[in-house]
TrEMBL record:
Organism whose genome encodes this protein: Sutcliffiella horikoshii
Domain of life: Bacteria
SUPFAM superfamilies reported in the protein's UniProt record: TRAP-like
Domain Tryptophan RNA-binding attenuator protein span(s) in chain numbering: 6-73
The name this protein goes by in its record: Transcription attenuation protein MtrB
NCBIfam families: PRK13251.1
Taxonomic lineage from the root: Bacteria, Bacillati, Bacillota, Bacilli, Bacillales
Amino acid sequence: MSQSNTNDFIVIKAKEDGVSVIGLTRGTDTRFHHSEKLDRGEVMIAQFTEHTSAIKIRGKALIQSSHGEMETD
């Protein structure tokens, strides 16, 4: 595992109940491998790993990463 994979993470703060955070796998077939539901005000810190190549977020949330801050619509 390369150093950049172990340090890349995002912070997700739910702005409403029921925000879904879904981890997607690496490899030739991208698949869901983990999901969480957050309620309003809950915070999750997610890290990109050798198994997680993408994170999908459904619902209103504030997202912070080393690339900046954004909000979902």
